[in-house]
Design a protein that fits this description.
There is one protein chain. This protein is an alpha+beta fold and 345 residues long. Helix content is 29%, strand content 21%. It has 9 helices and 17 strands. It has helices at 17-20, 32-47, 65-78, 95-106, 176-186, 188-194, 232-238, 249-263, 320-334, and strands at residues 27-29, 82-86, 111-113, 123-125, 147-150, 156-163, 167-168, 171-175, 197-201, 213-217, 219-222, 225-228, 269-271, 278-282, 286-290, 293-294, 304-311. Strand 11 and strand 12 (225-228) form a beta hairpin. Helix 5 (176-186) packs across helix 6 and helix 6 (188-194) packs across helix 8. It is globular and about 60 Å long.
Length: 345
């Protein structure tokens, strides 16, 4: 049986939305000097003809901004678990140049990991046609509908905004730690259920001969570190496989309670992206969502984000499910295949 703590998990990441909604210390607006460093690093990279993924941190020098990024990395890992970088003037750059800047910044925060079976290190987050309730090869980020709260794979996820929606598309985040502590306070019986394994759909991206799902608990405390893996949509779709155990009533109620608390005004923090923003989240501490949105009719103006998934350090001390999942997505990078994902819009 999993060990369920009998005390709240004490962490700066146990924040609630109203406590910080008026605060600005989670937003870092780049200074003119920091933007100048990005410009110089971009020029250095392009003048040598370097391309992603062959651009290392040493190829993208940020003499002073790197110190700020080191502080942000610490806050992501052991602080509130999220940061918003603001003020990168993407209107001055081509899409390729903005992508290089994004990549260069992220080299200071961790190691990029594949996001899908194609081995993509940077994914375009934009809508295509299709219904992800009916087509299991469509991902939520490829739709315009409300995206339920979830966390991504890896340690950190970054989203860079190149274009905003015509209306809607607001990003919402909640603290998995605060949700854990509230469930412990109000429904300890359901907390125990959330420490049990849940079966999660690979949505067609498993390797041949392997199970089309994997198992992970919603909550784990391992070596005094907090881990959360939440995504009801993929847990529900895994129930289509006959070999997957049926969800217990307590597991179902626990998932619903987690989702309700994440959406609750008392826990949720909403943010509206601006062009040039980079949102950074610790997947073990934070869940995120997105409101539905309307796009502009012109293709070049449609909502467009760039996503990267990072491993922030050595995972040898991580729980088994996290190490196994990291090994799986490393294999995505080492053995890319033709995609099962829908990509045509």
């Amino acid at each position: 049986m999993p060990m369920v703590p009998d005390q709240p998990y004490d962490s700066p990441a146990a924040w609630k939305g109203p406590e910080i909604v008026q605060s600005s210390d989670w937003v870092h607006t780049l200074s003119g000097d920091e933007i100048a460093e990005l410009d110089a690093a971009l020029q250095s990279v392009t003048s040598r003809g370097l391309k992603i993924p062959d651009i290392a941190q040493s190829d993208f020098p940020l003499p002073h901004f790197s110190k700020t990024l080191a502080d942000i990395q610490k806050k992501l890992k052991s602080g509130r678990g999220f940061t918003l970088l603001r003020g990168i003037p993407v209107e001055r750059y081509s899409e390729a140049e903005a992508t290089i800047i994004y990549w260069g910044i992220m080299t200071y925060l961790g190691h990029s990991m594949a996001q899908n079976m194609m081995g993509e290190l940077i994914s375009d987050v934009k809508a295509i046609d299709g219904n992800w309730d009916q087509n299991f090869n469509i991902r939520g980020y490829q739709t315009r509908v409300h995206l339920p709260f979830h966390c991504d794979k890896g340690d950190l996820v970054g989203l860079m905004c190149l274009q905003v929606a015509k209306t809607g598309g607001e990003s919402c985040i909640s603290s998995s730690v605060a949700i854990h502590n509230e469930i412990q306070r109000t429904r300890p019986d359901l907390l125990a259920a959330l420490y049990e394994p849940f079966y999660i759909d690979h949505r067609g991206e498993e390797f041949e001969g392997e199970d089309p799902y994997y198992a992970a608990p919603v909550f784990t405390v391992h070596h005094d570190h907090f881990y959360s893996r939440f995504g009801s949509k993929y847990v529900e779709s895994a129930q289509r496989f006959s070999q997957v155990p049926r969800l217990t009533p307590a597991q179902t109620e626990g998932l619903n309670l987690f989702g309700d608390l994440a959406m609750n005004d008392g826990f949720r923090l909403d943010m509206t992206f601006q062009r040039g923003d980079i949102q950074l989240l610790n997947n073990h501490l934070i869940v995120h969502s997105r409101t539905d949105y309307e796009d502009y009719p012109e293709p070049e103006r449609r909502r467009h984000l760039l996503r990267m998934i990072l491993l922030s350090g050595d995972d040898k001390d991580a729980p088994d499910f996290a190490r196994n999942l990291n090994a799986f997505i490393r294999r995505w990078g080492a053995e890319p295949r033709q995609s099962a994902l829908e990509t045509a819009g």
